Amino acid sequence: MYTTFGCASCKALGRYLEEHGVPFSAVNLSVHPHLSAPLVSETGMRMVPQVFYQGRYIGGYNDVVSLHRQGMIS
User: Fold this and answer.
1) Can you give the pTM of this predicted structure?
2) How many CB atoms lie within 10 A of CB 5?
């Protein structure tokens, strides 16, 4: 999960994943700004959180929660 400092949606998604026992790692773009341009190039999105699952881009907060509720992310 790509995040930034102060991102409420990032914090909420992290809590959601923790509460549901879904393992994840976070990359904070505030700490690693050199990763922002490649991320935007790959996803077309400038906002965070941006999540990859099993090497595939799946989207942001709503996308991840929806896929988890459908049993597609564990």
Assistant:
1) 0.92
2) 9
Peptide bond into 49 cis (omega under 30): yes
Structure tokens at 13: 């998604």
- CA dist 63 and 38 (Å) reads 21
- Contact, 3 vs 29, CB < 8 A? yes
What is the structure's pLDDT at 74?
A: 87
Pairing of strands 51-53, 2-3: unpaired
Domains of the chain plus CATH, in order, are 2-69 (3.40.30.10)
DSSP assignment of 5-71 equals TT-HHHHHHHHHHHHTT-----EETTT-GGGHHHHHHHHS--SS-BEEETTEEEESHHHHHHHHHTT
